[in-house]
Amino acid sequence: MLNKLLILLLLFLVGCANNEITISAEEYDHLKPTKKRMNVFDKMKEYSDEELNWKRENEILQVVVDKNNQVFVRGQLISLKDLNRIGKNFFYDYEKVSDSPFADEAMISLRSNKKTEQQVHLAVYNELRQIYSELWEEEAQATYETSFGNLKMTDKKVVRQKIPLNLSESEPTEF
Fold it and tell me: Does residue 175 form part of some domain?
């Protein structure tokens, strides 16, 4: 597609310089990308307020690290060592209440305060990544009876499509 676009653009520029070639509106429309990516806000417009509230409560695990380096999950103070268990339980519970197991809408949201120590933020982030690694490992064992690390790349993609890495990290703010 890109090569086609470049050739037409080159022909157009050369043709314009010689006043010989023009591109019709139909040709121009044909060059435009046909698949429009839907952003989060477009998706949200499809849901009622009640559905959005359900999604916020069930599809997003909110993890917050405050200025005192304390970790909160959904407003509850927790210790870092409990984060892995809570995160995995979030996905297991989500599997029970959603239409499809590990649907791609389930996500973890990490938010830190500007005054959070970097090493604490990184420890929390690494723990959240570990949750996904362990879920991928469990899925590989259940589906392929082998370790995730031993899977072929195509099989790893299948596992990651079933359990996509949906980890949202917002810019640190003061709160």
Answer: no
Q: Does 174 fall in a domain?
A: no
| pLDDT one digit per residue (tens) for the chain, 175 residues | 556 656 656 555 655 555 544 555 555 555 555 545 445 555 556 667 777 676 667 788 999 999 999 999 999 999 999 999 999 998 887 766 665 555 567 889 999 999 999 999 999 999 999 999 999 999 999 999 999 999 999 999 999 988 889 898 988 888 7
Do 81 and 151 share a structural domain?
Answer: yes
* Rg of the chain taking only CA atoms, in angstroms: 23
Residues 67 and 23 in one domain: no
* Cα(172)–Cα(150) distance, integer angstroms: 37
Is there a domain that residue 82 lies in? yes
Number of domains in the chain: 2
